What does this fold into?
Amino acid sequence: MQGVKPGPYVKPKIGKVLHVPVDHTEPKPMPDFEKKAAPVKLNAAHLKREKQLLDKQEAIEMKKIQEMALGLKDASEFNRWKREMDMKDDVERIEHIQKKKIEMELSREQAILA
It folds into this structure.
């Protein structure tokens, strides 16, 4: 391969520095995405999803109104009670874990002393 002339596919010899002209030295400022809203395409699929979501929310509200009109209780009282019981259970669980940690530390200390 000694007689082959270097072409565009052959790397230049080591030591050559290629100078590339630069148009500008200042970087462009970062665009502010908070001020400029991104354009959103509204296609048929997006409109159908939006309509389905609104229909679902409307059906849930109508169901609640009908239940209240019939004199049935809404679930807000039950949900409040459930949140309170969950918080109480969490506190008891944390207390139990802390108690077990203390017991383990005491048994470790007793084992070291024995």
Q: What stands out?
A: The mean pLDDT is 81. Residues 75-114 form one domain.
